[in-house]
Amino acid sequence: MTSSAFSSISALSPLDGRYASRVAALRPLLSEFGLMHRRVQVEVEWFIALSDAGFAEFKPLSEAARGLLRGLVTRFSEADAQAIKDIEKTTNHDVKAVEYWLKSRFEGNAELKAAGEFVHFACTSEDINNTSHGLMLKAAREQVMLPTLDRIVDKLSGMAHALAAVPMLSRTHGQTASPSTVGKEIANVVARLAHARARIADVKLLAKMNGAVGNYNAHLSAWPEHDWETFSRRVIEQQLGLTFNPYTIQIEPHDYMAELFDAFTRANTILIDWSRDVWGYISLGYFKQRTVAGEIGSSTMPHKVNPIDFENAEGNFGLANALLSHLSQKLPISRWQRDLTDSTVLRNMGVALGYALLGYESLLKGLDKLEVNEAALAADLDSAWEVLAEPIQTVMRRYALPNPYERLKELTRGKAITRESIQAFIQTLELPEAEKQRLLAMSPGDYTGKAAELARRV
């Protein structure tokens, strides 16, 4: 079997097979390659920071040495990752393999080789891992996930504005209800999703570099007078761009990860809700789907144009949320100062966010195919004159007419109501003539309140 066949048709996960191209942006960030890349970055930045700490035993590195070190990060390749994997076959320890690989890059450079034992100095593996995971999530959030969510928000905002004044019949409990506009219903989703997006963006990504059990034991054994806590904070916040967590066990306790994954789950849940609504609106004929030449909706029914993009989105959001929920619930739990259950679970961050990204892309693909069917919307409204029972009885209340709700209930509940029957009822009401004429002029398509204004404002 060829390697290309193994990477696609024989892939165990559809993220690396059928849908590989659609989640490609996450692959260099959240794969094992991405983890190795960030481990190298953290080791390099810690090493450089140690050289600047003022220790007599480790003088500041030259600019050439710093350039060489940081070049290992910027030019990190799959060949480098494979070299680390080859070392791991011997060490059976992934972080130690990174340390040994980095030291091997010092060969031929006397300055770096002389300082080689300061690589991974006073660090536990989790000092490297937790910062690396933070950097991975930072890159995935900033470079892929939020920009894709922003595309959805922008797309929906444009639709809300364009369709702000297009009336549609609401269906509360699946029954005809007071009309809205297509744009206002989309604006509701925009408002919810924008809030959820902000929650994702606001989560601070925490990290620690404080040794085997979080107390700087090893650090202080070497230089008891050095302010290691301030030093670690500076490396984490100034050099790595994360937020320092001063209180940890051997691992950073992952509460921020739970918060982040819960925030993604909330956004995905909103989009499941929207995907199902669009599916229903397509079924009602409110939306048409633009056909794509060559595509087939059914193997036996040639007429069908199925809403598969919204179905795919819903399914993938469900998978994402199942994984994200497990990550959120499991990761903050660790036996005593450390167990390894977090390590094996964290390797699935890319899977969880990959399914979310796949859902976002499917949803965007579906939205791009939608065309509003104003004729179907108008016909639906014209067959639902009973919805004017609400404004009529509300005006009756204003003018203190007796039993307005009960009279409209008797007239409309469970009955087929026409323009003629509703207007005949209005004519019997003892209302000021101007109010009566206003009600007689009203149609279901006019009775949309501030829907258009709200849609345009979102």
TrEMBL record:
<comment type="pathway">
    <text>Purine metabolism; IMP biosynthesis via de novo pathway; 5-amino-1-(5-phospho-D-ribosyl)imidazole-4-carboxamide from 5-amino-1-(5-phospho-D-ribosyl)imidazole-4-carboxylate: step 2/2.</text>
</comment>
<dbReference type="Pfam" id="PF00206">
    <property type="entry name" value="Lyase_1"/>
</dbReference>
<feature type="domain" description="Fumarate lyase N-terminal">
    <location>
        <begin position="17"/>
        <end position="315"/>
    </location>
</feature>
<keyword id="KW-0456">Lyase</keyword>
<dbReference type="GO" id="GO:0070626">
    <property type="term" value="F:(S)-2-(5-amino-1-(5-phospho-D-ribosyl)imidazole-4-carboxamido) succinate lyase (fumarate-forming) activity"/>
</dbReference>
<comment type="pathway">
    <text>Purine metabolism; AMP biosynthesis via de novo pathway; AMP from IMP: step 2/2.</text>
</comment>
<protein>
    <recommendedName>
        <fullName>Adenylosuccinate lyase</fullName>
        <ecNumber>4.3.2.2</ecNumber>
    </recommendedName>
</protein>
<dbReference type="InterPro" id="IPR013539">
    <property type="entry name" value="PurB_C"/>
</dbReference>
<dbReference type="GO" id="GO:0006189">
    <property type="term" value="P:'de novo' IMP biosynthetic process"/>
</dbReference>
<comment type="function">
    <text>Catalyzes two reactions in de novo purine nucleotide biosynthesis. Catalyzes the breakdown of 5-aminoimidazole- (N-succinylocarboxamide) ribotide (SAICAR or 2-[5-amino-1-(5-phospho-beta-D-ribosyl)imidazole-4-carboxamido]succinate) to 5-aminoimidazole-4-carboxamide ribotide (AICAR or 5-amino-1-(5-phospho-beta-D-ribosyl)imidazole-4-carboxamide) and fumarate, and of adenylosuccinate (ADS or N(6)-(1,2-dicarboxyethyl)-AMP) to adenosine monophosphate (AMP) and fumarate.</text>
</comment>
<dbReference type="InterPro" id="IPR047136">
    <property type="entry name" value="PurB_bact"/>
</dbReference>
<dbReference type="InterPro" id="IPR024083">
    <property type="entry name" value="Fumarase/histidase_N"/>
</dbReference>
<dbReference type="GO" id="GO:0044208">
    <property type="term" value="P:'de novo' AMP biosynthetic process"/>
</dbReference>
<dbReference type="GO" id="GO:0004018">
    <property type="term" value="F:N6-(1,2-dicarboxyethyl)AMP AMP-lyase (fumarate-forming) activity"/>
</dbReference>
<dbReference type="InterPro" id="IPR004769">
    <property type="entry name" value="Pur_lyase"/>
</dbReference>
<dbReference type="InterPro" id="IPR000362">
    <property type="entry name" value="Fumarate_lyase_fam"/>
</dbReference>
<dbReference type="Pfam" id="PF08328">
    <property type="entry name" value="ASL_C"/>
</dbReference>
<comment type="similarity">
    <text>Belongs to the lyase 1 family. Adenylosuccinate lyase subfamily.</text>
</comment>
<dbReference type="InterPro" id="IPR020557">
    <property type="entry name" value="Fumarate_lyase_CS"/>
</dbReference>
<keyword id="KW-0658">Purine biosynthesis</keyword>
<dbReference type="InterPro" id="IPR008948">
    <property type="entry name" value="L-Aspartase-like"/>
</dbReference>
<dbReference type="InterPro" id="IPR022761">
    <property type="entry name" value="Fumarate_lyase_N"/>
</dbReference>
<dbReference type="GO" id="GO:0005829">
    <property type="term" value="C:cytosol"/>
</dbReference>
<feature type="domain" description="Adenylosuccinate lyase PurB C-terminal">
    <location>
        <begin position="334"/>
        <end position="448"/>
    </location>
</feature>
